[in-house]
Amino acid sequence: MEINNNIPQATAKRLPLYYRFLNNLHLQGKTRVSSKELSEAVKVDSATIRRDFSYFGALGRKGYGYNVEYLLEFFRKTLNQDNESNVALIGVGNLGTAFLHYNFSKSNNTKIAKAYDANPDLIGKEVGHVMVEDVEKLDQSLSESDIDVAILTVPGHVAQSVTDVIVKAGVKGILNFTPARLTVPADVRVHHIDLTVELQSLLYFVEHYPLEKK
């Protein structure tokens, strides 16, 4: 993702969401969309959307809204969607297997190109059309690839040791699905996604902050 450093990180994280919705609109044949329509679809308030878009200049016109094709092309270039990005998956358990069978190339330009596991029953087999490699060869295999981002779905107790290996191999971004909080160099970015924490948070909000019926 090629984002100007002056763009707030919160805005940058919402751009793929806008891109996906705009792509759906384009496939439906829609030619323009208002910030209100965008707001209702992506569940982000209109003022935030207009502020996000304002960082990139005049993307729309008052009274007209936004040209879908123009916005789609703009965000395609901004998000570098014209180039395919390969990522590695470390840990082919239940969650990792689900990722491999889904694989991201079906919905955008990102796909899982390499997968690693320690289970001898999996090594050398294809899961979701990706050959599972021995995690013991992770360092050399990643070092010889052009992969900068890895998805971590290993057991929590080995997450840090695996992280140390992939960072040494040149990985600059980690999507961490383990409960471990990883220690990485300053030039490596980690996004933590703890499904248990997210579920507990959702249950708390359902219980204590019920939404009003429309």
Automatic annotation (TrEMBL):
Transmembrane segments: none annotated. It is found in: Cytoplasm. GO terms for biological process: negative regulation of DNA-templated transcription; response to redox state. GO terms for cellular component: cytoplasm. Residues 80-181 form the CoA-binding domain. Its main location: cytoplasm. It holds the Pfam family Put_DNA-bind_N. PANTHER family: REDOX-SENSING TRANSCRIPTIONAL REPRESSOR REX (PTHR35786), REDOX-SENSING TRANSCRIPTIONAL REPRESSOR REX 1 (PTHR35786:SF1). Homodimer. Belongs to the transcriptional regulatory Rex family. This is Redox-sensing transcriptional repressor Rex.
